[in-house]
């Protein structure tokens, strides 16, 4: 099982690194690469065309501004593509979000929140867990930990219910 985390620029890495970190924390291999539809269109197309044959199962693609990378990758592969709108200084990330989320019918990209790279990692893991019981168990335990943490914080604030 393998996830690819690609980003339009090295400047996206402070955000996109969270996706890779999340995937690896659950023991799944993850490659990271800068691939830009705008700046290196030929490489981007090659990456998308070859991804499935390279054993990649899910692609997480993050980009900021005129964020065409996730959609362009989705147009040349059947693999699930999760898009991460990266927030730039101008327009607060709304430009990135709108560039990714409104895909034409037939070419799906699963868009997460602005800068939501950690959730993109978890979503990729959930996709892989549909055919891996051990990973599914790890995700279930993680979900239970989240609930426990939320309850503990509530008790710290308001006492026992
Ligand atoms: N949106 C895209 C694409 C693309 O969609 O192909 N390639 C680069 N970029 C974005 O440009 C922003 C600024 O990049 P620089 O910091 O390198 O100037 C980054 O957020 C990148 O994702």
Automatic annotation (TrEMBL):
GO biological process, one term: 'de novo' IMP biosynthetic process
Enzyme Commission identifier(s): 5.4.99.18
Gene (UniProt): purE
Annotated GO MF terms: 5-(carboxyamino)imidazole ribonucleotide mutase activity
Residues reported to bind substrate: 9, 12, 39
PANTHER family: PHOSPHORIBOSYLAMINOIMIDAZOLE CARBOXYLASE (PTHR23046:SF2), PHOSPHORIBOSYLAMINOIMIDAZOLE CARBOXYLASE CATALYTIC SUBUNIT (PTHR23046)
Domain PurE: 1-150
HAMAP family, alphabetized: PurE_classI
EC primary class: isomerase
Catalysis performed (reactions): 5-carboxyamino-1-(5-phospho-D-ribosyl)imidazole + H(+) = 5-amino-1-(5-phospho-D-ribosyl)imidazole-4-carboxylate
Pathway membership, UniProt: Purine metabolism; IMP biosynthesis via de novo pathway; 5-amino-1-(5-phospho-D-ribosyl)imidazole-4-carboxylate from 5-amino-1-(5-phospho-D-ribosyl)imidazole (N5-CAIR route): step 2/2
Function: Catalyzes the conversion of N5-carboxyaminoimidazole ribonucleotide (N5-CAIR) to 4-carboxy-5-aminoimidazole ribonucleotide (CAIR).
Keywords of this entry: Isomerase, Purine biosynthesis
UniProt cross-references to SMART domains, sorted A to Z: AIRC (SM01001)
Stated name of the protein: N5-carboxyaminoimidazole ribonucleotide mutase
Source taxon at top rank: Bacteria
InterPro entries in alphabetical order: PurE_ClassI (IPR033747), PurE_dom (IPR000031), PurE_prokaryotes (IPR024694)
One Pfam family of this chain: AIRC
Family: Belongs to the AIR carboxylase family. Class I subfamily.
């Amino acid at each position: 099982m393998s996830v690819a985390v690609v980003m339009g620029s090295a400047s996206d890495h402070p955000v996109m690194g969270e996706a890779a970190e999340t995937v690896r924390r659950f023991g799944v291999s993850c490659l990271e690469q800068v691939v830009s539809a705008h700046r290196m269109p030929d490489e981007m197309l090659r990456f998308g065309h070859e991804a499935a044959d390279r054993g990649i199962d899910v692609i997480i693609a993050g980009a900021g501004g005129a964020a065409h990378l996730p959609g362009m990758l989705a147009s040349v592969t059947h693999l699930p593509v999760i898009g991460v709108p990266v927030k730039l200084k101008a327009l607060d990330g709304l430009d990135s979000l709108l560039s990714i989320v409104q895909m034409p019918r037939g070419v799906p990209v699963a868009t997460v929140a602005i800068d939501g790279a950690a959730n993109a990692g978890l979503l990729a893991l959930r996709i892989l867990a549909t055919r891996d019981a051990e990973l599914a168990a790890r995700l279930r335990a993680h979900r239970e930990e989240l609930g426990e943490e939320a309850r503990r914080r509530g008790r710290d604030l308001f006492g026992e219910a």
